[in-house]
Amino acid sequence: MTRAELYEMAKRLGIPGRSAMSKDQLVRAISKRWNDFGEPEAYVLSGLMPWEQEFYERFLKPDDEILIVGCGSGRDLIALLRAGYRVEGLEVAAQAATKARSMLAKAGLNARVTVGSIEDTSLVSKPFDVYIFSWFCYSYIPQAAARIDVLRKLRDHLLPGGRVLISYEPARTAPRLSCPPHGSRCGRPGALRCCCLSAGRTPDAA
Ligand SMILES: C[S@@+](CC[C@H](N)C(=O)[O-])C[C@H]1O[C@@H](n2cnc3c(N)ncnc32)[C@H](O)[C@@H]1O
């Protein structure tokens, strides 16, 4: 979420322009921003984007148990289930999670979708082989210290040989990625970077 979007959201929530938001207010703002993202059914059923396909094929193994962080209305969750993986979703925006559940049912698929923020790792139901932060979701965790803290906590919830897959927009020198309209597909975002953190690595500079 850009700073401008956060200010806009703060305005809608009645929080004065440049005052500091509490953590709760921030979570509400983020949820509100994403609640209706990816509403159209055609979008939810549109499968993985080419860069995701490439990235996930490189780092996923057929028997992996996967948690998608930021599963939204279910697009990547459904695509990976259809590809045969064992997948669950975690999503901070309750309305988007409800949509994901109804799309799973429509598609005849079954997966747990939990509502909440990845910062609360008590919501992680069990250890996983892989945590996939859905596109840019890692960057939506406000503040570097909180992001690093999440990675540290997830390290303790990884099965042996486990991996954390993140995508992010590299800071500032690259041209900013302009987001496609809600529900439309992003072809190959020029500024996107992906990386896989494996279980032994200390997350010190993410
Ligand atoms: C770009 S959207 C992707 C949604 C869906 N995976 C898709 O591809 O259509 C990123 C998602 O991450 C969710 N999100 C942001 N911060 C989160 C957090 N801390 N914990 C869990 N989900 C989060 C947002 O609510 C949003 O649904």
Reading the helices and strands in chain order gives HHHHEHEHEEHEE
The named CATH superfamily of the largest domain: Vaccinia Virus protein VP39
Mean pLDDT equals 84
Alpha-carbon distance between the two ends: 18 Å
What count of domains describes the coordinates?
Answer: 2
Global structural class: alpha/beta
State the CATH class of the largest domain: Alpha Beta
The name of the CATH topology of the largest domain is: Rossmann fold
CATH architecture of the largest domain: 3-Layer(aba) Sandwich
Shape verdict: globular
For the largest beta sheet, what order do the strands appear in spatially? 3-2-1-4-5-6
Which consecutive residue ranges, at least 5 long each, have pLDDT under 50?
178-184, 202-206
How big a fraction of the residues is strand? Answer: 15-25%
Helix run count: 7
Explain this structure to me?
The protein has 206 residues and is α/β, with parallel strands linked by helices. Helices cover 33% and strands 18% of the residues. It has two domains: 1-34, no CATH class; 41-198, 3-Layer(aba) Sandwich (Rossmann fold), CATH 3.40.50.150. It has helices spanning 3-12, 23-34, 41-44, 50-59, 75-82, 94-106, 144-155; strands at residues 65-69, 86-91, 113-115, 128-133, 158-168, 193-198. Strands 3-2-1-4-5-6 form a six-stranded mixed β-sheet, sandwiched between helices. The longest helix has 13 residues, at 94-106. It is globular, with a radius of gyration of 16 Å. The two termini are 18 Å apart. Residues 30, 34, 37-38, 69-73, 75-76, 90-93, 96, 117-119, 134-137, 140-141 line the site of S-adenosylmethionine (SAM).
